[in-house]
Amino acid sequence: MKLNQLRDNPGARQTRILVGRGIGSGKGKTAGRGVKGQKARTGVAIKGFEGGQSPLLRRMPKRGFNNFEHATHYTVVTLGIIQSAIDGKKLKGDKIDVASLVEAGIVARKQDGLKLVGKKGLKSKATIVVSKATKGAIEAVEKAGGKVEILPAKVNKLLKPKKAAKK
């Protein structure tokens, strides 16, 4: 094979249709865009537009209010992450809580609480103090010989960081 004999595969390249070259070509006058109107112009943006009729999203009734200011945001930690930290000698001691996880660099910061998830991955015996935990995570910790302590809701609210005072 020589460089001057290289060719594309058949059908790999298609010639562009030259639009707007006389009515006889079939793509003249309006260039295949139909007649006048918004869609014939550039910059068409009519995703939710229903031709002047009130859009469906605005016709639907609105109910409730989600106040995200008072929402609780939990830091999620898996059993596998905890086990890898124990193996890497990052976590020391028998009791694992938010402060020890932040100190070890596993959790970036303390949010409203700590949630423990995962069904497998823990092999070490440890007492884990959390705000919430899934059933699978509790069973896996107990199977490894450890214990999960769930903090009461009042303690979680006390641990919640205070907002900066408005001036």
Brief characterization of the structure:
With 167 residues, the chain is of the alpha/beta class. Helices cover 22% and strands 13% of the residues.
Word description of this protein:
This protein has 167 residues and is an alpha/beta fold. It has a domain at 74-158: Ribosomal Protein L15, Chain: K, domain 2. Helix content is 22%, strand content 13%. The protein has helices spanning 56-59, 79-87, 98-104, 135-143, 153-159, and strands at 74-78, 95-96, 113-117, 127-130, 132-133, 147-150. The strands form two sheets. A three-stranded parallel sheet has the order 1-3-5. A three-stranded parallel sheet has the order 2-4-6. The model has no long low-confidence stretch (mean pLDDT 86).
Strand order, main sheet: write it out: 1-3-5
Shape: elongated
Instruction: Point out poorly predicted stretches.
Output: none
List SSEs in N-to-C order: HEHEHEEEHEH
At the third CATH level, what is the topology name of one domain?
Answer: Ribosomal Protein L15, Chain: K, domain 2
Write the layout of secondary structure elements.
Layout: H1 56-59, E1 74-78, H2 79-87, E2 95-96, H3 98-104, E3 113-117, E4 127-130, E5 132-133, H4 135-143, E6 147-150, H5 153-159
Parallel strand pairs: 1-3, 2-4, 3-5, 4-6
